[in-house]
């Protein structure tokens, strides 16, 4: 679409980031070579290989857990809360100081637009460390006691690499645990830069250990006998496997898994803002969001008007170079994920739903998928039931609040939901009846360290964030 | 939301589509209060989000020249003199005397008693004279005085009339009074274009701004304008966003375009570019034209000129290189 006001490219400079040709593992405060093979991490926007990264073997994971245990017994669990807080505050400040570097690296490795890594991911990462630093010396008021669990094994996904790291590491450290964390194999770079930040903050060796790798490395962490706590964010399938692996052990587990959130728009909603919320709900971070509003439930009486407004809005989304400051939607994180999105979208079409994609020119290289909406979707369609984890919205309609609740809850997931209406009482009654961990009212995809986050049903268990987020890292009042 | 077209004679609405709507105070209220509400937080977040667009190089050069062409160069002071108005008019025609490629502004905006002076200087340059009328800025006068004020400005040669609505009537819910006021002033304007000022700083809520926008568009205003510049806050990005949504939706329903003019408080090129981004992405590129979007401003022009010079020469020159008014 030609426009007289064509925005010139406004790329954020890569020069601020120094990407090394190869990376080792961060164990006991040092970068060490792994004993396993190495794998490549690529820029999903260009398919350029960014670096070679060590794949941690069972022996490497064992070394990391041993280092974490040593640091736990000798240093971290004996340190007073106010001393631990100093380290966390220091880390938070360094994250802010190196915010641009982290944002650029996150966008390069993950494919998300710099606008989001700069304005959402990194500021919220720093906020999490600040928030939990504040808890470190106040644990006796937490309601969960002040005794840490020990060594936490943490496995995080590729959609918010550094933010998920912060969600895991900040509360664990604040409570006095030490950690072995594995970032996703497609997005290890910001976690490795975080390891450097731990060095810069003089964090005692072994308190944070970062081991890179894929599924095997994750399994080694989860099943390691000296791990006291397993925290996982990722797919429901892997979450189930983890639950099986830890069954019969004393390990404490929190799982934050998939979702298929309903974003419910009533006919009295502020429509223009609702359209923004729908767009933000499903196209934020290319839809690579476990709590994405991937099912739009719109009241039949305004369905046509909402769809018209939504399509007009989608046509203004700028898809392309993640480092361009004007990009709204970046690259799909991997070829594998792109294939999955394509497959489910094709199934949607084959099952009879009507597909519409925003008109946009996609770059020739890299992994891209145009923002897409399916109308005429029913509860029976796979695109209404399965998590696509991409920029694909399924639209269903409803006539009464009860029908909206029935459809919204008719899913094995229950992570989040959205309600759009001008009527306060309806927001409250809907929130009470929706079986979802987070219900947003007249907004969507808002994150704050003070607010607990987590799911019902197959979306997992345990809460992260807020006071509730401490529970997963403490032994409890009576211990 | 779409009203049923009516075959009965019009009571003043410029569009037959709204005849039933403006038949009575209660039907008008039903319509205006039936417009989708505005969520304040969401609206402000959207405006702030658009404000983060990064407009560089060619896009910036385009935006600066367009913004200059959209300026209603304004002086509305009790101490205005004929000499000052003549100087302002000269500047409107040739904002940067050192650079003939610099475009002229859209109009100069003055009080009615200065219209003739401005017109004399501007001649056939193509730069319009806009006059504030209807007991600007408070609008507190009898209807016949407001109409006389308008006719006086038009007779003196004003091409555009910037009227103020009766905010007292609006806030007390007498929408039909406001509608009729606008319709009558429009009639008094003759061929002159009518801009309707809401004084959004007094209307306070975004719901009110949306209702006032529809009211003014149904009454036949050519432009809807945020503020007089005499009340704080004057123009803001979220208020202008609501008005741009209104003109966009009005065209969807009627096929008719209405212009938007934020006025007051827009001082820098950076601000102006944020507005243009919003015009582009909310109302659409059709509104990127001085016929459909204006800036009511005085100090903005010099900042635009300084940035323009910086783009062409690579250097900033000091404020002393540009005229004060």
Automatic annotation (TrEMBL), chain B:
Pathway annotation from the record: Carbohydrate degradation; 2-deoxy-D-ribose 1-phosphate degradation; D-glyceraldehyde 3-phosphate and acetaldehyde from 2-deoxy-alpha-D-ribose 1-phosphate: step 2/2
InterPro entries in the record: Aldolase_TIM, DeoC, DeoC/FbaB/LacD_aldolase
EC code: 4.1.2.4
GO cellular component: cytoplasm
Protein's GO biological process: carbohydrate catabolic process; deoxyribonucleotide catabolic process
SMART domains: DeoC
Listed Gene3D superfamilies: Aldolase class I
Pfam families reported for this sequence: DeoC
GO molecular function: deoxyribose-phosphate aldolase activity
Catalytic activity line of the entry: 2-deoxy-D-ribose 5-phosphate = D-glyceraldehyde 3-phosphate + acetaldehyde
Superkingdom per UniProt: Bacteria
Annotated keywords: Lyase, Schiff base
Sequence similarity: Belongs to the DeoC/FbaB aldolase family. DeoC type 2 subfamily.
Full protein name: Deoxyribose-phosphate aldolase
Species: Nocardioides glacieisoli
